Amino acid sequence: MLNPNIWRSQQQTFDWQGHRISYQDQGDGPVLLLLHGLPGSNWVWHLLWPMLCGQFRLIAPDFLGCGDSDKPVPYDYRLADQAAMLDALLRHLGVETYQIIGHDYGAAVAWQLTCRQAPAHTEAEEPATEPVIGNTLPEQPDDAQQPTDSTPSDTAENKQTDGPQALSMSWLSPRISGDHSGFIWRERWLSGPSGQVIFRRLVSEGLYGRYLERLTGPFSPLTRQRLRDSWELLCAHQGLNALPLLLNYRYEMPQRREWPRMTIPLPLQIVYGQYDPVCRRLPVIPQVNYQSLPCGHYPQEEAPEALVATLLAFHSSEQKYRNGVFSNLKAADQPG
Asked: How deeply is 211 buried, as exposed, middle or buried, from its count of CB atoms within 10 A (0-12, 13-18, 19+)?
């Protein structure tokens, strides 16, 4: 396993509106944009890195307020601002097209980011398909309706017609519903008015470890080293002050009952852990592929090999939209 200190020493930086954004940019080939969750940093991708870095150009930023990026306090951490930061970073790096893999909070930012761009294909080109169900699909809510032709950001003035274009995306253990079903009680407590003061004064490494254990599946017990690494990255640069402010993003997200009426602008796969307490009532979104893995909330750390196989199976089927991004990995997976 790569030492986190070596990982952090390899971070590059980008200035966005006077704030330092740290990111990893390694590899050659088609671009995969890896977006971490909360609490977290781009370090959560380190187990996938050796499996993908030889085939693709991997770009993994630390969100503003996370990891080694600046963590201004007070600050209004809005999803739209994180999406604007990502767009500026991709432009800075000369990226034209890319795929998205977003975990947890990263899925919410990915949704915001892709709603900003014009569709990469026309309505006439899109095949008529039914929702693809893999393994177990979450229960359909009773008040589900047919999808509409727009998303909350789907207006002519908000659409981005130039610049980097996303081709498809996978959401891992996504927290995309603003209601209580997507957050455990500790997180709802921290996102309240007193969350910043309470978190800074009461949360310790031990309490944080029990929180991570609550989210981790039974087959990948939390190690002392993983806890230590995660705690140090959380505490860096005033992280204990920034996290409660970041959790306020749940007030920007649609309610669970609203998601069946949403239209996702790109081919989308949702991957969730069978033992993940925050994904027990995922919303059902039309024409979205759902896959479950035998893990908790962190498939990239608990089941990295199975996750890569799941990503490969989905993205390889999207030949029309992905421009061959995963073809090299598929070839490497074939027996010699």
From this structure: middle
Q: Please state the length of the chain.
A: 336
Angle, CA 19 vertex, CA 116 and CA 87 arms, to 5°:
20
Instruction: Report whether pLDDT(138) > 60.
Output: no
The one-letter amino acid at 81: D
Determine the Cα–Cα distance for residues 181 and 259; give it in Å rounded to an integer: 13
Contact in structure between 318 and 311 (CB atoms under 8 Å):
no
Are 278 and 215 a contacting pair, CB within 8 Å?
A: yes
Amino acid at 272: Y
Q: What is the rounded average pLDDT of the residues 282-309?
A: 92
CB 71 within 8 A of CB 238: yes
Residue at 45: amino acid letter: W
Residue 318 has a pLDDT of 53
Tell me which H or E stretch contains 320: helix 319-322
Tens of pLDDT, residue by residue over 173-198, are: 998 886 666 666 566 556 555 555 66
Model's pTM, two decimal places?
Answer: 0.82
